[in-house]
Amino acid sequence: MNYFKNIFQKSSPKTDLKKLKVELKKEDLIKQESTIKDVEGLKVFFEKLKSHGIKRYDNFFNLCIISSIANSDIMLLKHQIALTDQKLEKLLAARMLALVIIEYLQDMNDLLGNKLVKEMNENSFKEFIPKLRELNSEFAQIRKKHQSVLSNIRNNIAAHKTKNGLSLVNQIFNLNPSEIMEMGNEGCIVDNNFTKETTKIIYRIIQEAEENKKKAGKS
Fold first, then answer.
1. Domain of life of the organism in this record (predicted)?
2. What pLDDT sits at residue 7?
3. Using CA of residue 119, residue 123, residue 124, residue 125, what is the dihedral sign?
4. How far is Cα 198 from Cα 194, in angstroms, rounded to an integer?
């Protein structure tokens, strides 16, 4: 993510900026393809479990899908801010990014806490609980740190809009896109660690399913 540091500095050479934009566009394509593959895989697995009447992983797979989509949304919006030369487009992307971040952090607060811990306990996956609690705490710290700014953006110039025209335009033009991008970076770092942990859990679920299948075949 180091290439974001100088994106708003006017002193950046044009050749470097062009190179950066090419790299970001390539990363966009890779990320989009990866997200589609991940979400489709999760969707198929989740639906297969449900078709067999297995509901004990519902909260976990809900979280995985929400996390994957939100992470992709955040990255794509960060790149849109970095790539565009148009002020209004940059500000719009920043507003949408703030909205995605605050909604995602609130979703994680609701789903990653006691609901997931309870599910892990019920499935005898207790070894994952300490790390999940740690990640939940890290998400909560980011939410508390940026709650005021992000909520104000969401409530006044993103999901909802103030009916005071002067206030609206002043708030929009006073936005700092690089600041919103940095908030997104903070969330992505924790989210990447969350993905690593959920991947371990998915492998454990698959392993358990294969063992149960073998046992059923022998009986």
1. Bacteria
2. 45
3. negative
4. 6
